[in-house]
């Protein structure tokens, strides 16, 4: 039994479940304790394996891809959808939630322009207070 447990992964059979290829990428600020806890919660949900999670406070600059720099990624949530389009704010949450069956069912309603505008306005209010909780990049915090 121990020999099989330590066997090389190339010996996997077709019966073993393979990890899903990420459909979208979410860029979040892991130095914000509230943000990190929210993302950590989403990461435990069904469908989270369809998302590539990038902590902008700790990643290499190249991991942010094109059209996004570290400061932008730290300022608010960003996501790249399945087509590679970069979105931020409420639209980024919708891209993420679409992959999570717990919330995915509601995303068609949230994609309406007026709803996105409302959610973005609420998110911007949160962003004004977020610096009160954010730790400087590189400083550790308890999750």
From TrEMBL:
Molecular function GO labels: protein-disulfide reductase activity
One Pfam family here: DCC1-like
Segment forming the signal sequence: none
InterPro entries linked to this entry: DCC1-like, DCC1_Trx
Annotated coiled-coil segments of the chain: none
Protein name stated in the entry: DUF393 domain-containing protein
């Amino acid at each position: 039994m121990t020999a099989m447990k330590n066997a090389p992964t190339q010996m996997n059979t077709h019966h073993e479940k393979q990890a899903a290829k990420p459909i979208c990428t979410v860029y979040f600020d892991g130095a914000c304790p509230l943000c990190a806890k929210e993302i950590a919660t989403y990461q435990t949900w069904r469908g989270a394996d369809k998302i590539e999670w990038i902590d902008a406070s700790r990643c290499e600059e190249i991991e942010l891809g094109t059209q996004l720099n570290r400061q932008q990624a730290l300022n608010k949530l960003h996501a790249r959808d399945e087509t590679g389009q970069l979105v931020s704010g409420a639209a980024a949450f919708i891209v993420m939630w679409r992959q999570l069956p717990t919330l995915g069912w509601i995303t068609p309603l949230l994609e309406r322009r007026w709803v996105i505008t409302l959610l973005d306005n609420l998110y911007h209010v949160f962003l004004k207070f977020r610096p009160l909780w954010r730790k400087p990049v590189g400083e550790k915090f308890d999750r």
